Amino acid sequence: MNRWAPTLVLALCALAGATATVRAQPAVGSLEVAWDANLTDADLAGYRIYVDDDPNTFGLAPPAAKLQAFKTMDVGTSVTDQVFTNLDASKVWFFAVTSLDVSGNESAFSNVVNAQPGLTPTVRSVVPNTAVQGTAGLSVTITGTNFVSTSVVSFGAGITVVGLNTAGVPTSLIATINVDPVAQAKAYSVTVTNPGGSFGTKSGAFTVTVRAGRADIDASDRIDGADFLSILLGFPSVNGDAHYNINIDMDADGKVDGADLAIFFSFFGLIGPFP
Q1: C-alpha span between 202 and 113 (Å, rounded)
Q2: pLDDT tens-digit profile of 214-236?
C-alpha cells in the first residue's frame, strides 16, 4: 500500500494553490471538506475522512488515528466532498483524507487542514426599508446577529452596495446603496454573507418604488397625454418584442401591461421638474 501515498491526489484549501475547499455551511456548527479525486490508482475503492479537534491525531499512522479520532467516514470513489454537522463551533477542527483500495489497504494521510465552523448571521430588520428608483447614496441600517467585519451585504440585481460600515458588528451593519434608475419596482431580499459562505436572508425586506420621473416619458416636465400616447405605442409588450421600450415599462419587470398603466395614472397630471 506504500505505493499509494506519493500518488494520492488530494489538496484542501488551507494550502496555497489547492483546488478544493473547506467552507462553513449555512447550518451553525457545520463544515464542508472537499478534495481532489485520486485518478491514479486503478484499484481505488474509496476514501476515508478523518475529523478531530486535536492536531496530534494526524501525527499517528492512519490505523492508530482511527481509534482516537472524533469521527471518521468512508465514502465511495465518486464522492469528493463531505459535510460534517453538529461540530462544536467553539473549537477548531482538523481534517485529512486517505485512499482505500479494494483489499482494504489505506494510504498515508493527505495534507491536514483546519477550520472553525462559522456562525450563521441572521437579518432581523432593515431601516429604511424602501427607496425610489434612481436613489443614490442611501444609508441602510441592517440589524441582526453574528455579523463580522468582513460580512458582505447584497440586495440583488438593480441595487448596488457601494459602501459598508461595520462599526456596529456583531449586531448591525450600515450599507450605502445606489438604486438603478430602472431597477425593478418590487420587494428585494437582503442577504448578509459571512466568510466561508454562511449567510442569513430576510425576504422582501427592502422595496423599490417607481420614481415619478419615469412617467415623464418625453421629458417635458409634465406627465400628460403625450406620455400616455407613448405607452400606448408599446402596449402590451414584453422584453424582446420590437415595440417593447424600457422607458414605458414603469415597474421595469420586463413587460408593459396593466400594472404599468396603473402606475402611470398614479402620476398623471404632475408637473416637474422631476429628478
Answers
A1: 33
A2: 999 999 999 999 999 999 999 99
pLDDT(256) > 90: yes
Using CB atoms within 10 Å of the CB of residue 94, give its burial: 0 to 12 exposed, 13 to 18 middle, 19+ buried.
Answer: buried
Residue 262 CB contacts under 8 Å (≥ 6 apart), including other chains: none
SS3 at position 65: helix
The domains of the chain, with CATH numbers, are: 2-115 (2.60.40.10), 122-209 (2.60.40.10), 212-267 (no CATH)
- Helix-helix angle 225-233:258-267, to 10 degrees: 170
Nine cell digits for residue 241: 418584442
Q: Nearest to residue 32, comparing CAs of 76, 90, 97?
A: 97
- This prediction has a pTM of 0.62
Cis before 121 (ω within 30): no
